[in-house]
Amino acid sequence: MTTEVYLVRHGETMFNQLNKVQGWCDSPLTVKGINDLKRTANALSQVHFDNMYSSDLKRAIDTVHLMKNYNQVSTIGKIRKLPEFREVFFGSFEGDDIDQTWQAVANAAGLAPTNNVVKIINQVGIYKFREATKKADPRHLAENKEELDQRMERAIAVLHQLTLDERRVLLVSHGDFIKTLGIKYWNESDGIHDIPFPDNGSISRGIIHSDGSFEIVDYNMNAAEIVI
Prior knowledge:
Blueprint: E1 3-9, H1 14-17, H2 31-43, E2 51-54, H3 58-70, E3 80-81, H4 98-108, H5 117-124, H6 126-136, H7 145-162, E4 168-173, H8 175-185, E5 203-208, E6 214-221
Parallel strand pairs: 1-4, 2-3, 2-4
Antiparallel strand pairs: 1-5, 5-6
Helix pairs in contact: 2-3, 4-6, 5-6
């Protein structure tokens, strides 16, 4: 049996507004974030889910509970929190100014000074960008490509086992982690180059096949694009 997975990015947070690096560190949802999520929740209110899951970070947990409360056709019990679907870890840069962080990463990648993360990725590629982030981190704790690949594969394996008897589930995760899943599993990605960063409250739709393989078939949809 295949399982349809609605991957929702959490709503906007205080750190998003303040332009701070937010990986495993956390901050509360903003009023705008909550209002944006209500539009997503309304769009999904008539979609039946056999279960709902989330990352174990609070911004994701708050988001999944809002989705649960707005849904009118699903009976959801206790929500399982999955640390495998946490955001990408940025090590010592957690909570720092984003622009200063990208400047440090550009320097580690051997590029001219810039705080434009898209420019950095376009010049060196997403995988070298991950390596440069780890190199720039004074403690070298930030996740690199190999560590992220291993965690993504573990995340899909865990979700596959949890959803063996479930046809459709909702899972709240994070922007950079969903994007990295998209690079690896989206059928419109070449698996190498960068893709657009998913919006807060956006929906990406994936399929877990009976053999445990995974693919993303829709990426970064907003509430208006959801067709029941």
